[in-house]
Design a protein that fits this description.
By secondary structure, the chain is an all-alpha fold. The protein folds into two domains: about 5-180, TorD-like (Orthogonal Bundle), CATH 1.10.3480; about 185-300. About 65% of the residues lie in helices and about 0% in strands. Helix 13 packs across helix 14. The longest helix is centred in the last third of the chain and has 38 residues, at about 230-265. The two termini are about 35 Å apart.
Length: about 325
């Protein structure tokens, strides 16, 4: 990051970098100290096929864009006196809103400044930090170098902003988490509900990407179907349920450790997701070791003349 670039300007620049690449990305990347501007192919692979930069995907019970999680974020915009944009829960929009509040705070008297700072804290705690850090972790794991550097810098700046805000607020659970149902047990709630919950980070605690499913398929020597994650996961389970469940249990354990490392400074949100990962890993191992995974897979197997089971109805399907 250039010495002349302020933290707020950097946040705005990083927000732009989460949008489809265009000509202005080059100068912005240079001002941020990034070696290169991303290409359209790199952008598509990260943000359209692997890691969706929407709060609703990570905080909503369906694990999809839209729904109650997006409505909560839009309501926050409205409560602050702003007209919510078309995608109020997009990472770029939330970063832009935070930067606007920081700029607004600088020109106010002490009493008004305190109110705006409270709004900044609420935005960070309720709608941004709780999913941004695990999201950026996964970007660093899966993305090409330009986006790995982007994620590293963004995590650093968000962390710095958090240190400047009131700590006690981060110890309480945001409403997104307080209202989140746990991962359904397929033996009780059915296979469809189980798969929906498994792909919803707020319910399983982990972010499952296409790359994760491809790795599971390769390790178990299974065929990976093209299509949305739900469809691909169904067919992996049909081929070898126990191997897939054990692989996903290991991934839940791994991501749970990452949440645990953040719990000391991120507070209750990280501990919540850590515990969700632990419960998910426990359930998946139990299903595999007790043979229930095969039964679950049998419920997914389509009838001979019926199309494969697809995802439940959602407000905006993900690819």
């Amino acid at each position: 990051m250039s010495e002349r670039t302020t933290p707020v300007e950097a946040l705005r620049g990083l927000a732009v970098m989460a949008e489809p690449p265009e000509r202005r990305h080059g100068p912005i990347a240079e001002s941020l100290g990034l070696r290169d501007a991303p290409t359209s192919v790199e952008y598509s692979d990260v943000f359209l096929f692997q890691l969706y930069p929407y709060a609703s995907v990570h905080l909503g019970p369906e694990g999809m864009m839209g729904g109650i999680a997006r409505d909560r974020v839009a309501g926050f915009w409205s409560a602050l006196g702003y007209t919510p944009p078309a995608e109020p829960d997009h990472l770029a929009a939330l970063l832009g809103l935070y930067a606007s509040l920081a700029e607004r705070e600088a020109g106010l008297d002490r009493a008004e400044r305190a109110l705006v700072r409270e709004a900044r804290s609420a935005l960070m705690h309720e709608h941004l930090a709780l999913w941004a850090f695990p999201y950026l972790d996964r970007v660093r794991e899966l993305a090409p170098p330009v986006y790995r550097a982007w994620a590293e810098l963004l995590a650093e700046l968000i962390g710095a902003e958090m240190r400047g805000l009131a700590r006690p607020v981060f110890d309480a659970l945001p409403l997104h988490l307080r209202s989140a149902a746990s991962l359904p047990d397929p033996r009780v709630d059915g296979a469809a509900a189980f798969l929906e919950g498994l792909l919803a980070p707020v319910r399983s605690g982990m972010i499952v990407t296409r790359a994760d499913l491809a790795r599971v398929a390769a390790d178990a020597d299974l065929a990976l179907r093209a299509g949305e994650r739900r469809y691909a996961l169904e067919h992996l389970l049909i081929q070898n349920a126990n191997a897939v469940l054990l692989a996903l249990a290991a991934e839940a354990t791994r991501q749970g450790r990452a949440h645990d490392l953040r719990s000391g400074w991120l507070g209750g949100s990280a501990a919540f997701l850590r515990d969700r990962c632990h419960l998910t890993a426990t359930l998946l191992r139990e299903l595999a070791t007790e043979g229930d995974g095969v039964e679950v897979a049998g419920r997914l197997r389509p009838e001979p003349d019926q199309p494969p089971i697809r995802s439940v109805v959602r407000s905006e399907p993900l690819p």
